């Protein structure tokens, strides 16, 4: 499988994506977000979900077609 790299705008790091997803992902600017708990970096972008209200979207969720709002439900269910 062919892979391509997407530059993370805020650090000297790259995200790797399948070549078939490259054009879809590359139309946006992505930045790296370090998660202390897992000691890992995730590629994210800010998405306006309503006027003046933004939420982070993970690149891996964008590729599979999940909307940032869908994470709210998952988090609520995990805390019960």
Folded structure, characterized:
This protein has one domain. Helix content is 30%, strand content 40%. It has 3 helices and 5 strands. The strands form 2 sheets. Strands 3-4-5 form a 3-stranded antiparallel beta sheet. The longest helix has 10 residues, at 70-79. It is globular.
How many discrete structural domains?
1
Low-pLDDT runs: none
If you average the pLDDT, what whole number results?
A: 88
**What overall geometry do the principal axes of the alpha carbons give?**
globular
C-alpha Rg (nearest Å) = 14 Å
Q: Specify the helix fraction band.
A: 25-40%
Tell me the number of helical segments per DSSP (H or I, 4 or more residues long).
3
Short description:
This protein has 80 residues and is an alpha+beta fold. It has helices at 19-26, 59-64, 70-79, and strands at 3-7, 14-18, 31-35, 40-50, 53-58. The chain has one domain (3-79).
